[in-house]
Amino acid sequence: MRIFFYIILFNLILINRSYSLIEVDITRGNLDPLPIAVSPLHVDIKSEGYKDIKIKELGDNISKIIERNFKSTGLFNPLKKDAFVQKPDIAHLKPRFEDWRLIKAQALVTGKLLIKNEKLKVEFRLWDLTASKEMTALAFTTTPSNWRRVAHIISDKIYERLTGEEGYFDTRIIFVAESGPKNQRVKKLAIMDQDGANVKYLTLGNELVLTPRFNPTNQMVTYMSYFRNMPRVYLLDIETGTQEVVGNFPGMTFAPRFSPDGKKIIMSFAKDGNSDIYTMNLETRVVERITDHSSIDTSPSFSPDGKYIAFNSDRSGLQQLYVMRSDGSNVKRITFGKGIYGTPVWSPRGDLIAFTKMHKGRFYIGVMRTDGSGERLLTENYYQEAPSWSPNGRVLVFYRETKAGEKGKGFSAKLWSIDITGYNERKLSTKTDASDPSWSSLLSK
Amino acid sequence: MNLGEKMTLKTNLKNLLLVIFATLILSACSTAKKSGDIDGDVYTGKETVEYLASGVPDRVFFATNKSSLTTASRATLRKQATFLRKNKNLNVTIEGHADERGTREYNLALGERRANAARDYLMTYGISGKRISVISYGKEKPVNPKSSPLSWSQNRRSVTVKVN
């Protein structure tokens, strides 16, 4: 099922333009990641101190974040710095290509930074060592406290240049932080940078919160809360902290997600033992009923063009996946394989639907085409569910739980990510247990 | 050794074997009793059950992915209906729950469906729907946190809770 991974390097020299191109093929994954040298950014000696930033270490720290980002993709192999052959400032001016090639590097990142008048100025260059050419260069200015984001933006630019795909490093993940014994879990909304830094808790844990999801167009979040013991869908502005209940439904609303334009929330509303799918327009507050069926209809997810909705229904008897037009017409079942299916999530590229599959007591995260064909199971485990896409549609983040012993001993919930190739499975490090992850869009877009 | 002695040895051996057999069967019985707390995969034991009043259990149990009421569940709910008819000023909330072996969102819907199955049944025995509110917790509040078929069967439940 897994496709084997390899890397294709093109070293093309075009006759009339004479530039070269290292290219990383990310559609097939990678067993032989690209060796890349990330030189520490040179810190200009004229730099001034800024708050608690350790200016001398800043160049090193930024390069370390870039290296970690690259390593996490599985596509790059950042080389050890003790083998580096040139000082950062000199390499940034002009690398001695043959020396860098000696340590088997194929690409080199160099840069420099300056903090002056409370502004951080950064520039970086990406060098193709095989062809002895500069591939890309960029300079920008920001507030010094943004230095981690600077590292992520540089990572995105380099990833884009080398893979031809949009990056996903300058992003955040919202999730549910869990603590306490399994039968008395305390759950809080939490947000962190994609690499696990800057964790912030957005609720105190007084009420149960579930399934936070980012608006793809801004920093709003929709989630479910049991505030005052009324399970309802809420809207939260992470910048201001204001929150409000979504719609005036006389019963439980749950499983919320935004439409791709960010203007609607689609969710389930349960009443009298029946769950159907509704949308609410956030500007006009108009509520529309999308499904009307005596079965459970839930976990709706819009296609990125807004024309279709994938959802989960047990109208055939057990949980299966369905696709319909966004007005609720033309409902088609798309899963007919062995086992039962849940949590369909449409890829931001539009070509795939990620899902959870349950079969013979095992849980799988997989992807299939939007008509249900070409099912590929990426990972199997004791319990895992709730995939969420990286904004470029290349990586899925989900949560995984372990089997609990007597009195819940040995139970844990953690976030994991996997490439849609089925390769590069990784645990995300979180201080507490964690579940229900949702990946933001690129912040710098 | 004469013939008589041989015979007694034989019967002694037979008796010993019988005793061993009987012990085996008995121990098999005692384990069967334990798994007998699940019928199909619906919990039928009393381990986690609490009582609204003497002889009135507060909860009923469901099969995996199902919200239909078993014969035992209906008997329990009839007792609850009788209890509620006697206590006219009492209102209740029915909490619907699912086990951990399903996706979170589907389980929320399933818990709601289970709680409503119990509510509907109480209503057919003359309890006003106004007295019964419903809330689903999906798989969020297991009564038994262990990952085992027995605890899952105890967690697939609806619980009737007094609110005043």
What does this structure look like?
The complex is a heterodimer of chains A (445) and B (164). In chain A, 11% of the residues lie in helices and 41% in strands. Chain A has 445 residues and is mainly beta. Chain A has two domains: 34-163, 3-Layer(aba) Sandwich (Rossmann fold), CATH 3.40.50.10070; 172-439, Neuraminidase (6 Propeller), CATH 2.120.10.30. In chain A, strands 1, 2, 3, 4, 5 and 6 form a six-stranded mixed beta sheet that branches. Chain A has a four-stranded antiparallel beta sheet with strand order 9-8-7-30, with no helix packed on it. In chain A, a hairpin with a 2-residue loop joins strand 15 and strand 16 (274-281). In chain A, helix 1 packs parallel to helix 4. Chain B has two domains: 1-32; 38-162, OmpA-like domain (60s Ribosomal Protein L30, Chain: A, 2-Layer Sandwich), CATH 3.30.1330.60. Chain B is 47% helix and 19% strand. Chain B contains four helices and eight strands. Chain B has helices at residues 3-35, 71-86, 104-124, 149-155; strands at 38-39, 42-43, 51-53, 56-57, 59-61, 92-97, 132-138, 157-162. In chain B, strands 5-8-6-7 form a four-stranded mixed beta sheet. A two-stranded antiparallel sheet of chain B has the order 1-2. Chain B has a two-stranded antiparallel sheet with strand order 3-4. In chain B, strand 3 and strand 4 (56-57) form a beta hairpin. The chains are: A mainly beta (445), B alpha+beta (164). The interface between A and B is large, with 42 and 29 residues.
Question: Can you summarize this structure?
Answer:
The complex is a heterodimer of chains A (445) and B (164). Chain A is mainly β.
